[in-house]
Design a protein that fits this description.
single chain, alpha/beta, Rossmann fold, 7-stranded parallel beta sheet
């Protein structure tokens, strides 16, 4: 069944790629490659944040969004139509490395195909596994990246910045682009729901079911209700209207909650945007801890948990339910200036 599902998904992707039609090309185009169409709401939020950032700051450019399934078709088309003023951007996220091989293969293809055009890879986390396969893919990416002198890579945390510098000389550091939203409307309304779990069930999961049950036991002792959820949906080939609806529904879920417990990077970021107290648990590749340490460690209502014992968890839950949230504190928009500086060259 797994093999059949993969074959079916491949055929659907080919069908969507065939049907993909380019918008009108103009004299100054920004081609944003690899935008997410699968059901990861964190990645869908990145798409909307990227578009908002570019529309807010570069409305005089023609922005063309290229979905993840249309890379090959888009590369061929753009190579035939590109002009000297055009820019190529690659969708941000957490897929530089061998954890998500298709995303890395697509990135290499884009970087190899446009050596005479300025390319910016938007804020990313980096993970190459420490084994033979990871070493092989790391060398492959380093070879491709280093051959393009017009390539600039952006890390979204300090840990990833160190890794990107080993792949390419031109590197920048900014927060995950979803922070550009700053605040989500409704953060100051009454919260009617108690605790929202946003938990992974994929190859980045690290927290054990036993430790989740410990937390649930503490919540029950305190008479708190809880809801189990995630930032994924079982949908593919998601287009603009559906993307916006899914994102709005998920933000509303956060806005109704008094506390979020999550091992999702964007579970933590959504908590910040909605000003919801959040207890953060590590995933298996370190990206959530790296983002926390780089940008959020001084935010009182976001708390990273390293140790799992009953006493420690009890104290953290009590603290998070009573912490005072500074509703007026804004994210420093100047932190995105490296992207603006690159665009304005």
């Amino acid at each position: 069944m797994v093999i059949l599902n993969k074959i079916e998904s491949k055929f659907k992707a080919l069908k969507h790629e065939k049907e993909f039609a380019f918008p009108q090309i103009k004299h100054k185009n920004i081609y944003l490659f690899s935008i997410t169409t699968f059901g990861n709401i964190g990645d869908l939020a990145i798409v909307e944040a990227e578009r908002k950032f570019l529309n807010d700051n570069y409305s005089d450019w023609n922005l063309i969004l290229i979905p993840d399934y249309a890379t090959n078709k888009a590369v061929k088309f753009i190579k035939e139509n590109i002009n000297n003023e055009d820019l190529i951007l690659i969708h941000g996220g957490g897929n530089v490395g061998n954890l998500y091989p298709k995303a890395e293969r697509d990135r290499r293809k884009i970087i190899k195909s446009f050596k005479n055009t300025r390319i910016l890879s938007l804020p990313q986390s980096v993970y190459f596994s420490k084994d033979v396969r990871g070493d092989f893919e790391l060398k492959k990416s380093r070879h491709v990246y280093s051959k393009n002198k017009n390539l600039t890579l952006i890390a979204r945390d300090n840990n990833s910045l160190k890794k990107l510098k080993k792949l390419n000389q031109k590197t920048l550091l900014t927060p995950d682009i979803v922070f550009y939203f700053n605040k989500i409307k409704g953060y100051d309304l009454d919260r009617k729901d108690d605790v929202l779990f946003i938990l992974r069930n994929d190859n980045e999961k690290q927290v054990s079911d036993a430790n989740i049950n410990k937390i649930i036991g503490i919540l029950r002792q305190k008479g708190l209700n809880y809801q189990l959820s995630d930032t994924t949906v079982n949908e593919n080939f998601i287009q603009e209207d559906e993307r916006k609806r899914l994102l709005k529904d998920k933000f509303n879920q956060f806005l109704k909650s008094k506390l979020v417990i999550t091992d999702r990077l964007h579970g933590m970021i959504f908590s910040y945007l909605t000003r919801t107290p959040c207890m953060v648990i590590a995933n298996n590749n370190g990206k959530i801890k790296a983002t926390y340490n780089t940008w959020l460690k001084d935010i009182s209502f976001i708390k990273f948990v390293d140790r799992f014992n009953i006493q420690n968890l009890n104290e953290i839950v009590d603290y998070m339910l009573s912490v005072k949230v500074d509703l007026n504190k804004d994210f420093d928009s100047d932190l995105f200036d490296p992207i603006k500086d690159w665009m304005n060259k």
